[in-house]
Amino acid sequence: MFVNSLYFCIVKDETMDTKEQFETVINVCRSLFDNKLKDYGASWRIMRPESITDQLFIKAKRIRTLETKGAGLIDEGVREELMAIVNYGIIGLIQLQLGFSYTVDIDNRRALELYDFHMNRTKELMYAKNHDYDEAWRDMRITSLTDLILQKIYRTKQIETNKGLTLVSEGVDANYSDMINYSLFSLIKYEIEEKNCPD
Fold first, then answer.
1. Which of 65, 93, 128, 173 is deepest in the core (most CB within 10 A)?
2. Which residues contact 28 (CB under 8 A, 6 or more apart)?
3. Is residue 108 pLDDT above 80, yes or no?
4. Using an 8 Å Cβ cutoff, are 23 and 120 in contact?
């Protein structure tokens, strides 16, 4: 719970600019990823990309269910699921780069290097798009961002069914990157709008 409480209190600071807010939520997601590595190692290396897409689907579907029903029966909320989408999205990009393995074939240090490489590429894409779209995400509803994540997942599943072939569309990697960035948008919006930190 340390990671979550740290996160909630930092992002409340509305004097932060966009890049500072993104770096804050990214650091919290990375810290969670690092802690999971310490618990489990890079056990996700055995997962095929399609399995990662299904894991992303489960997380996004639960977020939408929580948004619709207003409550859940297990002790993990929307923020935890959004952080999971960020981290599974990065895992998906790593798996696309390396291919899946039949064993855990990288150590934790290498896993973090790969995480940082793909996160840096993803956030630089976000910064460029954010410039062009003039931070339109700030005026969007959080529920719309959830729907966009689910749409990207369904697109990814269709591309996977088509064996990765597309006629005019971006590939799986671009969809993973968009899911990551939409989740980061949502994490920032939740904390700014709800102001969960104590005074």
1. 93
2. 3, 4, 6, 7, 10, 83
3. yes
4. no
